[in-house]
Amino acid sequence: MNNKQLLKKQIHQKEAQIKQLHLHQSVNDACSGLYNTLILEKAILKKELENLEKNPLIEAVKRIIPRREKLICDYFKAE
Predict the structure, then answer these.
(1) Lowest-confidence range among 33-37, 49-53, 67-71?
(2) Integer angstrom CA distances of residue 42 from 12, 14, 17, 25, 65
(3) pTM of this prediction?
(4) Longest Cα pair distance anywhere in the chain, in angstroms?
(5) How many CB atoms sit inside 10 A of residue 7's CB?
(6) CB-based contact 39:18 (threshold 8 Å)
(7) Average pLDDT, the chain
(8) What are the distances in angstroms from CA 71 to CA 4, 63, 64, 79?
(9) Which of 4, 13, 34, 54 is at 20 to 30 A from 68, Cα to Cα?
(10) Which helix or strand (DSSP H or E) is residue 18 part of?
């Protein structure tokens, strides 16, 4: 099993745990804390999966080519 499949499996497990705790989060402070922790862990796993899916060559080109930030005054230039 490769890293992407492992991360997807872990994300699905976190989602199942979140669904189970969703009903009990308002009843108990411990459940609420665990629920919040699971949400953060799921977000971290999703970010790791997103980083694995990025093409390293395209990301290197993006870092080399400077991007000009669009300023609000650019929209009001007199032509």
Answers:
(1) 67-71
(2) 9, 6, 10, 17, 32
(3) 0.66
(4) 62
(5) 19
(6) yes
(7) 83
(8) 38, 20, 21, 17
(9) 54
(10) helix 3-22
**Alpha carbons 46 and 50: distance in angstroms, whole number:** 6
Evaluate whether 23 touches 68 at the Cβ level (below 8 Å).
no
Structure tokens at 59: 């990301």
Residues in the chain, total: 79
Report the 10 Å Cβ neighbour count for 74.
9
Distance CA 4, CA 26 (A): 33
CA 59 to chain centre: 17
Residue type, 24: H
Q: Which two tokens stand for residue 50?
A: 């997103």
